[in-house]
Amino acid sequence: MVIAERLPPFDVEAEEAVLASLMVDEDAIYKVHSIVRPEDFQREQNRWTYEACRALLERDEPVNQITVAHELARRGRLEEAGGPGFLSRIVAELPTPIGVEHYARIVQRDSIYRNLIFASSQIANMAYEGGPRLEEVLSRAAELILSLRGEEYRDFVHIRQLLEQYLEAPGIDAVGAGLIGHIRTGFVDLDTLLGGLKRSDLILVAARPSLGKTSLALNIARNAAIGQGARVAIFSLEMAAEQLAQRLLAGESGVDSTRLRLGEHTEAEERRIMHAMGVLADAEIYIDDTGFQRPADIRTKAKRLHRERPLDLIIVDYLQLMQGPAGRSDSKVAEVTDISRALKQLARELDVPVIACSQLSRAPEQRVPHIPMLSDLRESGSLEQDADVVVFIYREDVYVTEEQWQGLHADEPYPEGKAQIIVAKHRNGPTRTVHLRFRKNLTRFEDWEVLRPQTEYA
Question: Which residues are catalytic?
Answer without folding.
Answer: 238
